Amino acid sequence: MLDFPPTNLRDLRVSYDLDSLTEETAPSDPHILFNLWLQDALAHALPEPNAMTLSTIGSDGGPNSRTVLLKGLDERGFHFFTNYDSRKGRDIAANPRAALTFLWTQRHHQVCVRGTISKLPREDAESYFNSRPIGHQIGAWVSDQSAVIPGREWLHQRETEMAARFGTGPIPCPPNWGGYTLLASEIEFWQGRVSRLHDRLRYTRHEGGWKMERLSP
Ligand SMILES: Cc1cc2nc3c(=O)[nH]c(=O)nc-3n(C[C@H](O)[C@H](O)[C@H](O)COP(=O)(O)O)c2cc1C
């Protein structure tokens, strides 16, 4: 019999009472509200405020989720960088529909985004790659992301090989490494409220603008 988990999960709960989200105060463009909430997470020094869960659809029809970092947001959408040959890269190539979830738990905020992913131009990948620390640049050449590998030693050997290959640099951006952007079709904001009667406002693209609806918690 497993002595796990070490605490009674049924007794773990938080009362959500920090703020409210109303139709009257919510901006008509959800990107403005997203930006306000991201600024709020930064102002409260939350850990990794740009971390988001990216969910894709696998070739077997099942979902795959993992965390990636938001590295930009503009009229093209929400940007992140990764290995194009990774599992997520293969999922996106076969089906570009995907979802992002941001959780700023200390602020009782969640944002869920649905949309379509496309590749960012090569210039964006190179510009971001060149801004990364050298160890991260070498890491991108070392990692055959999502492939099964024989052990950690294999990674260290590749790291030594790549460090010798590129010397003191500059290190070029690997051809299979780059950026994606998710263009939102729907963005939902969740604000925790007391008695689990949370505020949920969903924005859906509509006639060149956005339609806002309140959802039951
Ligand atoms: C906080 C955090 C941030 C991460 N950021 C990235 C990222 O920006 N890009 C990336 O490729 N992987 C990132 N990862 C690793 C991914 O979660 C994942 O393990 C990796 O991308 C392989 O995913 P895949 O096999 O589904 O393609 C991050 C992980 C964590 C925990």
UniProtKB/TrEMBL annotation:
The record, for InterPro entries, names: Pyridox_Oxase, Pyridox_Oxase_CS, Pyridox_Oxase_N, Pyridoxamine_oxidase_dimer_C, Split_barrel_FMN-bd
SUPFAM superfamilies given for it? FMN-binding split barrel
* Domain called Pyridoxine 5'-phosphate oxidase dimerisation C-terminal: residue spans: 177-217
What keywords are assigned to this protein?
Flavoprotein, FMN, Oxidoreductase
Q: List cofactor names only.
A: FMN
Domain Pyridoxamine 5'-phosphate oxidase N-terminal, chain residue ranges per copy: 39-158
* Entry binding sites for FMN: 66-71, 81-82, 87-88, 110, 145-146, 190, 200
Q: What is its EC number?
A: 1.4.3.5
Q: Which Pfam families match?
A: PNP_phzG_C (PF10590), PNPOx_N (PF01243)
What is the free-text note on the cofactor?
Binds 1 FMN per subunit.
Any single biological process term in GO: pyridoxine biosynthetic process
GO MF term set: FMN binding; pyridoxamine phosphate oxidase activity
Enzyme class of the recorded protein, top EC level: oxidoreductase
Looking at the record's lineage, which domain of life comes first?
Bacteria
Key word Oxidoreductase present: yes
Family, per the entry? Belongs to the pyridoxamine 5'-phosphate oxidase family.
PANTHER family tied to this protein? PYRIDOXINE-5'-PHOSPHATE OXIDASE, PYRIDOXINE-5-PHOSPHATE OXIDASE
Name assigned to this protein: Pyridoxamine 5'-phosphate oxidase
Please tell me the species this chain comes from.
Prosthecobacter dejongeii
